[in-house]
Specification:
The complex is a heterodimer of chains A (281) and B (269). Chain A is an all-alpha fold and 281 residues long. Chain A has a domain at 29-36 and 44-99 and 158-280: MetI-like fold (Orthogonal Bundle), CATH 1.10.3720. Chain A is 76% helix and 0% strand. Chain A contains 13 helices and no strands. In chain A, α3 (56-88) packs across α10, α8 (175-183) packs antiparallel against α9 (188-199) and α12 runs antiparallel to α13. Chain B has 269 residues and is mostly helical. Classes of the chains: A mainly alpha (281), B mainly alpha (269). The interface between A and B is large, with 98 and 101 residues.
Chain lengths: 281, 269
């Protein structure tokens, strides 16, 4: 019997046309612009890409952006997994409280969240005043505009993206598996690493993908908490485009950025397929 | 044996508690700190504040620039939400329960703005609009925002549609109700919470958007997040904490309402 809930595919036409005009066409134009060697757009060539790939500064910006994503993702995983683990074992009322705590940062404005980190990490911020009043330090530490501060701030901003898929994965896990492992003599740690972790791998991969791509593209938090000294790809793109009006080079940066993100998404998807096979085996 | 078992249990639960505690503090602290600082009686962002007062909230009454920027942002976010819901719900109906390869490709296409760097899209949209001769304006802003906000509506609506019990619609059809009548009286009421949740997230993310707005806003239309971002870069002033306080209060109230009427948290996974 025909599924009466299935509608004709042509209902997707308005959004498809909208995306073709305002999303795909601009991206194709971006590729076209990036393939020009001069500002007047007369000569075609890959000069902008050669310039990026042969410039030590540009490559270091690319490298530090990709590395920043790794640091943030790992921190989110280490703190997010226990939250999800506690969530699925909590009674209903606590689950609501926990989920609202997790969701609050997701829906609170990025500017507001980033502003909070400026207040926390600043010279007169909560961390420095606490350390000074405890007598641990005499002069305020420089926390703002450091990589460590940025990683912590980004981890808070992106944490919900990690926790939500982990909760879904943990809820699908049959609790009797853990009990069986325990009653057969495996301790909590062994059960966690040999049963829980492998079986929730698809959720971990999904969470890492979302966290990673959000962390490396988080322009606002990167510029405000990282400060101007640390340049990551989004700021580099923005400076070249709007401050220097170097649109061809900015377009090439954008394309390299897009390719990097797509490669990472593809890698995570491949990993996801692998772990799904493992989790079902 | 028993000793080793104890050590195992104690160390496991200790680690989980410490990490969960750290994670929760990390999630809550920033919001709490902003709220506390916004009630300071002093004139700096020192924490803890020297005393408490409402003077920075009172000062918002005269901050006409911020109010104008906030109003512009609300207007753009409202239009973006309307456009996203119209386009997104219609597309979701088409792709949600279809197993065809086309539907699968369309789904990936509609979701792709979520992972691609928004700044790269903003730049490309600016180039595109200048190529076709459209000056940046509130219109280009709404169009750009819709591209990055529509995925949220599609995701929650497709989610609601796939959970729909087909027997209800078959029942309605077999009792003689036409397609449109079934849609209006059965399908729509059942997927409404999903649409509501998606529209809400689309609204919030449009209101908060900076990467796309930076490229597509006109010179005359100031937007609240951009205004705050620039203020944070130049001078730190407590007015921003008060604006943030109002923003957090609105978000929390809407979020609780959405959790109540549209089980928001279930739809975000």
């Amino acid at each position: 019997m025909r599924d009466v809930v299935a509608y004709q595919l042509r209902l997707a036409a308005p959004l498809f046309i909208f995306f073709a005009v305002f999303f795909v066409a601009p991206l194709l134009l971006l590729v076209w612009v990036s393939l020009h060697t001069d500002a007047t757009m007369t000569a075609l060539g890959a000069a902008q890409y050669v310039r990026f790939l042969s410039d030590a500064f540009s490559l270091s910006v690319l490298g530090s952006t990709l590395w920043l994503g790794v640091e943030v993702t790992l921190l989110c995983l280490v703190l997010g997994f226990p939250i999800a683990w506690v969530y699925v074992r909590s009674p209903g009322g606590w689950q609501t409280v926990l989920i609202l705590i997790v969701l609050l940062p997701l829906l609170t404005s990025v500017v507001v969240r980033t502003f909070a980190w400026i207040v926390i990490l600043g010279r007169q911020g909560i961390v420095n005043t606490t350390l000074i009043s405890l007598g641990l330090i005499d002069v305020p530490l420089k926390l703002l505009y450091t990589e460590g501060g940025l990683v912590v701030a980004l981890a808070q901003v992106q944490m919900p993206l990690m926790v939500l898929p982990l909760i879904t994965a943990l809820q699908r896990l049959d609790p009797s598996l853990g009990n069986a492992s325990n009653s057969l003599g495996a301790g909590h740690w062994r059960t966690f690493f040999r049963v829980t972790l492998p079986l929730t791998a698809p959720g971990i991969v999904a969470g890492c993908l979302l966290t990673y791509s959000a962390a490396i593209t988080a322009f606002i938090t990167q510029t405000l908490v990282g400060g101007g000294q640390r340049v990551f790809l989004p700021l580099y793109l923005y400076q070249q485009a709007l401050s220097l009006s170097n649109f061809q080079f900015a377009a090439a940066i954008a394309i390299i950025f897009l390719i990097a993100v797509l490669a990472i998404v593809a890698a995570f998807h491949a990993l996801g397929r692998l772990t799904r096979g493992y989790a079902q085996a | 044996m028993a000793r080793r078992r104890d050590l195992d249990t104690v160390s496991f639960y200790a680690t989980v508690s410490v990490l969960t505690g750290l994670g929760l503090v990390l999630l809550i602290a920033p919001t709490l700190v902003v709220l506390i600082v916004s009630f300071t009686s002093g004139s700096s962002l020192r924490f803890p504040p020297p005393g408490f007062s409402l003077k920075w909230y009172a000062a918002l009454g005269d901050a006409w620039q911020i109010k104008a920027a906030a109003w512009n942002s609300v207007e753009v976010a409202l239009w973006t939400t309307v456009l996203s819901v119209l386009l997104g719900v219609s597309a979701s109906l088409a792709i949600a329960r279809s197993r065809s390869a086309t539907a699968h490709v369309l789904d990936s296409l509609f979701m792709s703005p979520l992972v691609l760097p928004a700044l790269a899209f903003g730049l490309s949209a600016l180039m595109f609009f200048s190529l076709i001769g459209w000056a940046v304006s509130p219109l280009t802003l709404v169009l750009g925002h819709t591209v990055v906000c529509v995925p949220y509506v599609v995701r929650t609506t497709v989610g609601a549609l796939t959970q729909l019990d087909a027997a209800l619609l078959e029942g309605s059809a077999s009792l003689g109700a036409g397609r449109w009548y079934t849609f209006r009286r059965v399908t729509l009421p059942l997927i409404r919470p999903g649409i509501l949740a998606g529209g809400f997230i689309a609204f919030m993310s449009s209101f908060d958007n900076i990467p796309v707005s930076l490229f597509l806003r006109g010179a005359d239309s100031e937007l609240l997040p951009i205004r705050m971002w620039q203020d944070l870069d130049n001078r730190l002033d407590v007015t921003i904490a008060a604006v943030s306080g109002v923003w957090i209060a609105f978000t929390a109230a809407l979020m609780i309402a959405m959790e109540r009427f549209a089980s928001l948290s279930r739809r975000l996974r």
